[in-house]
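Justification of computing resources. Each target in the renewal requires a structure prediction run like the one illustrated here; the chain below, 307 residues long, is used simply to show the kind of job we budget for.
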Amino acid sequence: MRTKVFLIAAMVTGLAVTASPAAHSAQRADDVLAARAWHPDAARISYGYYFDPTDSKYHVSFPDRNRAVGTALSRALGDQVAVSYTAETPTIQAGDRFNNLPPFTGGAFITPDSPTARQCTSGFAIRDGFGVLGSVTAGHCAGHGNIVNYHTGAGLFYGQTQGSLRTTTRDMARLHGFFTVSYEPFIHTDPGAPTKRRVIGKGDPTLTTPICVSGSITGARCSITMISLSSGTACDEFGCTSGLMVGRRPGVTIVQGGDSGGPVYSQSGTADAIIRGMIIGEASPDTVLMHKISDVESGLGVTVATA
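Resulting structure tokens:
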């Protein structure tokens, strides 16, 4: 893709162009990763990756059990790719997010009533096109095209997935309470103080925006540096979602399995938060893949609920 953009720009300006070997290599890496054919299991497993302009490499993270897939990718792309592996069992580092009571707070642990769905994290309170309060989570949490009831760890009904999107650019779902439960414009931010923050605004981040993430397994983690606003990709057996933001805090676990759907935010003062997006996956434990908040709102036809 970068090669094509360069060539188009050059034709518009009337420049004579000879694509560099580096540009050809980058395009080849794009093609290999997009095709998911470098190993028989490449299109059957979950993993995340992003392009880092600082070292001109694709950074790809696989579950530890899929080392054969990672090894095959390293052979295929050589020094164009940096492969890492993540632990199979996440370590719970958040506080009490398993016993959420109404009105429900964003960043809560939610568990499905379907064996094909996944345990995930709720995002933040939203209003749909009719002004009805609800919540959001990642689309892959509920399975491909499934409608799933989610509950808290204590067994309370949290919401049903509605308007779930799984496309090449969207991975998101709306949670509807059917007027039987309520949601509040607050998000969990434990461990540490405060344990909850009030949502007072929203807005896409820039590369210099300080951001935090808050998954129900890992908890709130801040001091995350934005690497890219669009170079991240998250894949599973149903396909890949690209155009994701990438944030990193070197050497610190900021995201694990079960954190998907959690809020991405900036701190405001001592007790408030600005919603910046939603957790979608990881490209290593210290690198998080995220949707922009504008993508979540436009994709689901909702707006962030504020206090």
